[in-house]
Design a protein that fits this description.
By secondary structure, this protein is of the alpha/beta class. The chain is about 55% helix and about 5% strand. The longest helix is centred in the middle third of the chain and has 30 residues. The protein is elongated, with a radius of gyration of 36 Å.
């Protein structure tokens, strides 16, 4: 229905209603016409108010909600509900002496407040739930929202929501809002703070809370029955869950390589040559540890992909679950990659300051002076020039692609890419990044792999150790790219199975 038609109908209605309907002087045969017009008009009115313009129906009475507790969350939630158009009544232990409440809210005792509303939100800590038993008669048949969180996991045998339900079996308890903070409610919630998880045993009660949350501009995800409350209550206690494994790995590798290189470089020089080069810890050692760990972590992003490919080739199907460890590994590749990128950044920053280091400037000056003093001539070595230019160039190319991977992992960018584009950058260019960075390190090592003096105390330098995993990943990836392997894997990933669904014999892979 467009607006101009609706205006016409209104104008018509005004004319008929005002002038003609109650006229005492209308002739008899006009009376019939009038009756017809009247019923037509009534039908029009009904159609207009219910079908064409439901929004101009008389506004329903604003729903009254009850909040138990006038603390941080109670106040913030009450304020947002009032702004959204709800009426709010607080139930408090001290209705006459609580601090100023959001304008427009009423406050009374718990039992009085519960009596007035059908939805009651308990903004009280679990430790105080026993007071609710006194309000059990008023809460009977009502929707009772549990918003509570605990300070740590596994504090109680059952979830707070299930405990509340056991105290008040005749109320319909719904777990909700526990992932929303009072602060974000007050300050206008950003995306990260908008997700409300719902769970409860009554579908109607959940629907009422869903509508409430949606009207506050929050997005709602139904997690099922009340037994899911324990999981929902654990959400706010999680601290960067997907970052834990990558962070532990980065810390462990950094600690290992730091002590390994400290022993090889600093302690070795002190013990064998009686030289104190401990100052090297701050820049030289750091500029070895960070790129080494970065390269290993980068290769660990791509190792699960090749392992998964070999598992699929071996099983002849993609429909069997990967082992749990591989699943978990695959899920934290983004975090592994971003940490690797952070460490590569540090390497580049440390590299940039090499020319301004006191030690480097001193060494260059000393070398120049000794060349002049001894009247020596130095020959330009093209091989060294090739080597250093090549490894620097590979490092720069690798780093540029590394940054590209980081940029495409930003949600705003990845959302603008199709799955194919994202997969092209992350998978294809990702392997190219690994290739450049590995080559950078091989070229940096150059012929030192063969020199016995490189192996102090029979230990290889850090960059040789860190080349093991990337080299394995690249070799395995090359194997997968062989036409026969690639074709077989392609078919498996398109749904082909070596054994039919009912296990009816083995099909040839290369058919
Ligand atoms: C800086 C940086 C940022 C990163 N950001 C992200 C990120 O935001 N998100 C992310 O996931 N990773 C990220 N990573 C990790 C890594 O780049 C990706 O996980 C990358 O996709 C891994 O590629 P892959 O080829 O090893 O494995 P995958 O891309 O998982 O796949 C291997 C092959 O299997 C195919 N395949 C995968 N799943 C299926 C399937 N179900 N059915 C059929 N075929 C399938 C793919 O097409 C591909 O050919 C990042 C890494 C770095 C260094
Ligand atoms: N704050 C947040 O950002 C947030 C976020 C998500 C979930 N939560 C959860 O929301 C609940 C309330 O948190 P909050 O931060 O608002 O806590 P709070 O500021 O400490 O307020 C709790 C309120 O509970 C009432 N209360 C205290 N002792 C009581 C008792 N013995 N008996 C009855 N009522 C009592 C008080 O209100 P009266 O004085 O009016 O009675 C008090 O103001 C908690 O379960 C918390 O886990 C909080
Ligand atoms: C702008 C890009 C880069 C530049 C200019 C650069 C430069 C350098 C330089 C100068 C060295 C020698 C450091 C020294 O002598 O102590 C070096 C070493 C190394 N680089 Fe890079 N690099 C870059 C990017 C990368 C990237 C992206 C990686 C991989 C993550 C990487 C991995 C390494 C490794 C493993 C070493 C050997 C460390 C050692 O044991 O000495 N580099 N790089």
């Amino acid at each position: 229905m467009n607006s101009s038609t609706s205006v016409d109908i209104h104008q018509g209605r005004g004319r008929v209603g005002c002038n003609d309907l109650h006229s005492e002087t209308v002739a008899g045969d006009h009376r019939e016409l009038l009756e017809t017009t009247k019923s037509l008009f009534a039908a029009l009115l009904y159609w207009d108010s219910t079908v064409a313009r439901p929004h101009i129906q008389s506004a329903p009475e604003r729903e009254l909600l009850c909040i138990f507790g006038t603390g941080d969350l109670g106040r913030s939630l009450g304020q947002r509900l009032l702004q959204t158009g709800y009426r709010v009544v607080y139930g408090s232990r001290r209705p006459h002496s609580c601090d100023p409440l959001p304008q427009g809210a009423q406050v009374m005792s718990h039992t009085e407040a519960a009596q007035l509303a059908t939805v009651v939100i308990a903004c009280v800590h679990r430790e105080h739930y026993d007071f609710l038993e006194a309000a059990a008669p008023q809460l009977k048949g009502k929707v009772l929202v549990d918003v509570s969180n605990n300070s740590e996991k596994g504090l109680y045998p059952e979830s707070n929501a299930e405990y509340l339900q056991s105290l008040l079996p005749e109320a319909s308890v719904v777990k909700a809002f526990n992932t929303i903070s009072a602060w974000s409610l007050q300050n206008g919630s950003s995306d990260a703070h908008r997700q409300v998880y719902l769970c409860g045993d009554s579908a109607e009660a959940k629907q009422a809370v869903r509508e409430l949350a949606t009207s506050l501009g929050l997005s709602v995800l139904d997690r099922g029955c009340l037994s899911a409350a324990r999981e929902v209550e654990d959400f706010p206690l999680q601290l960067f869950p997907q970052w834990r494994l990558p962070l532990c790995l980065a810390t462990g590798l950094t600690a290992f390589f730091f002590f390994y290189l400290l022993t090889r470089d600093v302690i070795y020089a002190y013990v064998e040559k009686d030289k104190d080069i401990s100052f090297r810890i701050m820049v030289s050692l750091a500029n070895k540890v960070f790129p080494i760990v970065s390269l290993i972590m980068l290769s660990l992003c791509y190792l699960p992909g090749v392992l998964a490919a070999f598992i699929q080739l071996y099983r002849g199907t993609k429909y069997r679950r990967f082992p749990d460890w591989l699943d978990r590994w695959m899920l934290c590749r983004k975090q592994l990659g971003l940490l690797a990128l952070g460490l590569a950044f540090l390497h580049v920053l440390y590299t940039l300051l090499i020319p301004i280091r006191y030690y480097v400037r001193y060494k260059i000056a000393e070398n120049v002076v000794s060349v002049i003093r001894e009247n020596r001539t130095t020959v330009f070595d093209t091989t060294i020039a090739w080597r250093s230019d090549s490894y620097l160039s590979m490092g720069i190319l690798g780093f540029a692609l590394f940054v590209l991977l980081g940029i495409t992992s930003l949600p705003s960018i990845s959302n603008a890419l199709s799955w194919r584009e994202f997969s092209f950058v992350q998978s294809k260019l990702g392997h190219l990044t690994l290739f450049f960075c590995t080559l950078h390190t091989y070229l940096y090592g150059w012929d030192r792999f063969l020199r016995p003096s490189t192996y102090k105390w029979w230990t290889p330098p850090g960059y040789m150790l860190c080349l093991v995993v990337p080299s394995v990943v690249l070799v395995l990836k090359l194997l997968i790219l062989l036409p026969c392997m690639d074709r077989s894997l392609g078919r498996i990933r398109q749904g082909w199975e070596r054994r039919g669904p009912e296990g009816e014999g083995t099909k040839p892979l290369m058919a």
